[in-house]
Amino acid sequence: MPVTSGDIDAVCELINDLCGICLDASKSYLIESRLGQIVEKHGCSSYADLVQKVRRGVDPSLKNQVVDAITTNETLFFRDSYLFEALRYKALPELIDSKEKSAFPTRLRLWSAACSTGQEPYSLAMTLAEMIPDVHRWDIQILGTDISDAVIAKASRGYYATHEIERGVSPERLKRFFVADGNGWRIRDEIRSMCSFQRQNLLEPLGMSARFDMVFCRNVAIYFTRDVRRDLFQRIAGTMVPQGYLFVGAQEFLADIGPNFAPQNHCRGTFYRPNMQKIPVYV
């Protein structure tokens, strides 16, 4: 079914309302390729008709189907190796050293926002296991969140097909951290136990009870408007400890958000420490 200009306007407004992704007429091919089957499946007369059904709540699952179709779930283990180098050789050693004199020297809290099918949280857990010899004695919680119920369910299972493993997992890590299971591989329990997953729409109040030592919010805010992006990272900073580390995507730069979002560059990777200066909390 072809997409009309009226369809495009209605769909773009809906997608922006649901998940903050900013589309325009140049993305008509994306709308048609990703939503076409949903339009046909639900007997919609047009894409605008689909929008109306979502807004009226005719089928409670329809909103999730649209979000799942539009959102990009492209990810892989240890994505952007230079970021993990900055994490391994700079941020994590500093964080671990700073914990030694704290009230909770073996407690770490990490958040992977927009984690998709879980490769990033599990990559973080594997990195910690490699760096901390007695990691099983530490109190480590890595929270993975995403707007899609489907990808959160997959992440929670910790099961990956061979082609997913081949994208980023070395033979050494495969042997140490995975168990063969049928035609794929399952994350070992000692790694899975560090990670938990839940649904989170980043446009909504974050409502986090924990204060995170590190937050990873990569390659999602690039689809937001400038105002939404600024508000999001200010709220994320409000979930972090005073000395916390914030990692964003390789093409994302936060200096325009405020002076406290000054980048720190290490090992070709970049991170931010927005709470080194006090800012308002917008959680």
Give a verbal description of the structure.
- With 283 residues, the chain is of the alpha/beta class.
- It contains eleven helices and ten strands.
- The protein has a five-stranded parallel sheet with strand order 6-2-1-7-8. Strands 3-5-4 form a three-stranded antiparallel sheet. Strands 9-10 form a two-stranded antiparallel sheet.
- Helix 1 (5-19) runs parallel beside helix 3 (47-56) and helix 2 runs antiparallel to helix 4 (62-70).
- It starts with a helix and ends in an 11-residue tail after the last strand.
- Mean pLDDT is 91; it is low at 279-283.
Give the secondary structure arrangement, pairings included.
Elements lengths: L4 H15 L8 H14 L5 H10 L5 H9 L10 H19 L7 E7 L5 H13 L7 E8 L2 H9 L1 E3 H4 L5 H7 E4 L2 E4 L1 H4 L2 E5 L12 E6 L8 H12 L2 E9 L14 E4 L2 E4 L11
Parallel strand pairs: 1-2, 1-7, 2-6, 7-8
Antiparallel strand pairs: 3-5, 4-5, 9-10
Q: What is the SS-derived class?
A: alpha/beta
Percent strand equals 15-25%
Termini gap: 42 Å
**Major sheet:** 5 strands, parallel
Mean pLDDT: 91
The radius of gyration over CA amounts to: 20 Å
Instruction: Note the total helix count.
Output: 11
- Specify the overall morphology: globular
Parts with pLDDT < 50 across at least 5 consecutive residues: 279-283
SSE run: HHHHHEHEHEHHEEHEEHEEE
Give the total of beta strands: 10
Helix content: 40-55%
Strand order of the largest sheet: 6-2-1-7-8
